[in-house]
């Protein structure tokens, strides 16, 4: 069952694309990530042009995140106040990120920068999360138990302009909260991600948000950040393939519901370990693509908007 994508200018198998959406949606509901860090590389591996993969990936993230967030909202595991502060920063970051995306595309360096950012961020975040989660599981197996993060304090808690977030049981400065949102917004625009693979560990280790609240709150923030990014990408770069996005969204909505249910059956350290392994696997795959010699080292392409 093949279908031609008008913007990507390529024929794809409908079942394969929807299967990607289901898989990413499942991970979204399970780990609290939008899934953009996975869907964008998968689309690139499937020969979708990187510019289209990034912009359309951000669009797909909305559906998967909304479905997963809805499941968490019903269980009361979303801190709406904290999520709102994060998305304020995310909206600001998205504007700057889209401008940077447009500049990189005009310079012809977008593909390289996107791949390098994925390798650096996925490798770094995945490695740190894996080490910490394995240490937590080792402590649990050793009888000492998992350390509760919410009771710890670091330099972030000494900053001014503090705000109380009752659902997360936090009293923390809004400076790092909004700053984290800005960074996620920039990454959403450039990498086509919701930023959950950075948002989740940052909320856990930096802000000390309880793990059971992190996932739902992350998904809530991702919905709006990805929405702003999608609108800006469509208006500025015309790189969103609606047909491709629709197929991904269909699968993503279904997968997210099953993922949210599966996530309830795992402990926090187990969830972090699985997410870390997934993040590392995607980063290693992209890193391999950067160093391996391509089958066709030379290619000819026309500037956007021109035809042969």
Topology of this structure?
Layout: E1 2-5, E2 10-13, H1 14-31, H2 36-45, H3 50-74, H4 80-107, H5 110-141, E3 162-165, E4 170-173, H6 174-191, H7 196-205, H8 211-236, H9 242-263, H10 268-291
Antiparallel strand pairs: 1-2, 3-4
Account of the protein in words:
Belongs to the 4-toluene sulfonate uptake permease (TSUP) (TC 2.A.102) family. The protein is 69% helix and 5% strand. By secondary structure, it is mostly helical. The chain has one domain (2-290). Strands 1-2 form a two-stranded antiparallel ribbon. A hairpin with a 4-residue loop joins strand 3 (162-165) and strand 4 (170-173).
Which features characterize this protein?
single chain; disordered C terminus; 5% strand; 308 residues; mainly alpha; 10 helices; two-stranded antiparallel sheet; two-stranded antiparallel ribbon
CA-to-CA gap between the ends?
28 Å
Structural class by sheet pairing and helices: mainly alpha
Total individual domains: 1
Report the order of strands and helices: EEHHHHHEEHHHHH
Q: What is the radius of gyration computed over CA atoms, rounded to a whole number of angstroms?
A: 19 Å
**Low-confidence regions:** 146-151, 299-308
Q: What percentage of amino acids are in beta strands?
A: 5-15%
Gross morphology: globular
Give the averaged pLDDT, no decimals. Answer: 75
Contiguous helical run count: 10
How would you sum up this structure in a few lines?
The protein is mainly alpha-helical. The chain is built from ten helices and four strands, in the order ββαααααββααααα.
